[in-house]
Amino acid sequence: MRSAKIPRMPRLPEHRFRALEVREAAELPPIIEMLCGQLVFGRTIYRGQSKSLWPLQSTWERRYCYVQPAGIMRPYRLQPEYSTRPQLLQALLNLFRTQVGSVVSDAHALTNRELLALGRLHGLITPLLDWTHDPWIAAHFAVRGLSSEERDSAAIWALRAPASVLPYAAMWNSESFPRIDWAPHNPSTRQRLQQAVFTELHDQIFGDLGSYLDNRLAVQRGKHPALIRIEIHAAAFAGIRRMLEHRGINDDALGLTETTEPNWLSDIAVRCNEALPVGRASCATLASA
């Protein structure tokens, strides 16, 4: 089956997160130092995105979910095909496991979560949203491949993710937003090099993490307690790349080139993505791929 294109990325809803700006590269290090020094918040994880106006959506949510902003006066509706998505995801994992198993002898021993993490970092469409412990690695992914002539700004997102400190602990839910696995048993080479961890959203109403957190943490006034967005303007891209090179953070160091990991996993992910239906989820179509 020929796969349709992933729908156009929706614009970021108006969340109440704290927003910071970097117009010159020299403004980024003190912001990172400030975020890393606020230990009272517990763990903080970071994500780089090349467009600051993109919502925080996994590749799975981009394909199957719409952005539903949170708010007392907003009309809510259920996400389409929500009840069939677990079966569709399992069919995708079965296909990925089978194809990976043809070249990796112990692929059958990986848990579904380990398989999802392996696939996500090689381009498989999954509900996982990848983050990193290191804000400078997030900066690399934010400005990667961008020029100073870009019209749009990039972003580093920071998520306060303590397990038990209120109000942050209210974000976790075993079904819709399970806790982060901070110590994976079988991380891939790419996961170790990128210091990657993952969040996973399965909500019946909200299709992006920002809106889910707005609702879950009951944000009505003031600034968001869990999310911070650092908007990076194009004029800062070149200077930030020089800082990253000085720190030894590049594609090779993060396992993104063939010198650290072969491309066959990414090739398998592409084939599985091509078999994944768009629109009305069909497990039968995927199972026959």
Describe how the helices and strands are arranged.
Layout: E1 18-22, H1 28-37, E2 44-49, H2 59-64, H3 85-101, H4 112-120, E3 128-132, H5 135-143, E4 154-160, H6 189-194, E5 196-200, H7 209-216, E6 227-232, H8 237-246, H9 264-275, H10 283-287
Parallel strand pairs: 1-6
Antiparallel strand pairs: 2-4, 3-5, 4-6
Helix pairs in contact: 3-9, 5-8
Your description of this structure?
The chain is built from 10 helices and 6 strands; from the N terminus they run βαβαααβαβαβαβααα. It is α+β, with helices and mostly antiparallel strands and 289 residues long. It has a domain at 18-83 and 126-252. The strands form 2 sheets. It has a 4-stranded mixed beta sheet. Strands 3-5 form a two-stranded antiparallel ribbon. It is globular, with a radius of gyration of 19 Å.
Could you name the key traits of this structure?
single chain, 289 residues, alpha+beta, 10 helices, globular, disordered N terminus
The strand order across the widest sheet is 1-6-4-2
% residues in beta strands: 5-15%
The helicity comes to: 25-40%
Report the radius of gyration as a whole number of Å. 19 Å
Largest sheet: 4 strands, mixed
Class per helix and strand makeup? alpha+beta
The count of helical stretches stands at: 10
Give the overall silhouette. Answer: globular
In brief:
Helices cover about 30% and strands about 10% of the residues. With about 290 residues, the protein is α+β, with helices and mostly antiparallel strands.
